[in-house]
Write a structure and sequence with these properties.
The protein is mostly helical. Helix 2 packs parallel to helix 7.
Length: 420
Amino acid sequence: MPSPGELIAPKRLGRDFRWLLASSWTSNIGDGIALSAAPLLLASLTSSPLLVAAGAMMQYLPWLLFGLFAGSVADHHDRRRLVMLANGSRAVVVLGLVAFLATGHVTVWVVLASAFLYGTAEVFADTAGSTLMPMLVRPGDLGVGNARMQAGYLVGNQLAGPPLGAFLFAAASFWPFLLQILCVSLAVVLISRIALTPVPAKDESTADAPKVHPIREGLEWLRAHPPVRTLIVIILVFNVTWAAPWSLLVLYATEHLDMGAVGFGALTTASALGGLVGTVCFGWLERHLSFATLMRVCLSLEVIMHLAFALTTIPAIAFVIMFGFGMYAFVWGTISTTVRQRLVPLHLQGRIASVNMVGIFGGLVIGQLLGGLIAEGWGLTAPWWFAFAGSAVTLLLVWRSISHIAAAPPALDEPGSAAR
């Protein structure tokens, strides 16, 4: 029987992958702690819903402002050191917030400024970090590797971190942020153990070839590569339809389903538990089903999930839907990340990943705005009907293209060429 270590991080993925996984899991625990502690801190300083919501927006905004630039930076600098520098900057930002808390001089504006600075550093950390996996493992192992990374996100960011952050905040407002600093700092130490060689530079056909702006080069490659372009469009549109009702889930749960605050929290926990099951099963799914089949199944379940939420008024059914959502959503996340990493050349991984992230967060912002407007005019179930119709039409339009995305030939970079 394989040891627990072998099940979590198979030896065939290499020692450096284990350092990357340990760093990611540790960082996710720190982020999970802040996931509950930061809103609690804002709520203790102001009763304004707008200012409380601005805390989350301050972490979304840097993706829209700096996402493409961060991708270019990641493709032209040492990616491991960039992750270390960005995570170190995050720790410094949180340390500054702790200083304000300890001296009693913290204000809403200090917290919002800290959230923006932290989010900006996170853009560079996540963009550069997303490029490391294809540098460390073979294309055939990307699925398993990404599934293990997703499991760390679920356990640390969604399950363990938030209740720990809330518990520590109840003891003293600065304790969760001190632990967050420790987690992020430890993540820097762990990732420093990875050994990488520089990413192979793109060959130029002529010495006097005209220089192309790095961001433009990435966008032109994306324009000429329909499979990856279509994948990013799918992710953008499905994030718009997903965010429209999800931004109002707390009102839907407490008012439409009459579940109360505890029930709302339990819904999100059900989703995380389903996601954990999905990531654990990913290896089996990858061996028995094609990526094209899995992608179609996941997106079809998304459409059905929106319809089910639009129709149900029974809390027990809502829990089942959320558990199923977690399962297929994290399988989809693993697949879409794996497919993108296989198809994009190493020297463009950062720029294409950043376009993908801008699409994700742009979709979230657009969807949240649409969801609020739709609910104001037609009630709390209306965003679910919008999501059902929008995702169903999108799926019909891209159904045939999914086969081309999954079957597209991988990039020609030598597998693991940047690892040693």
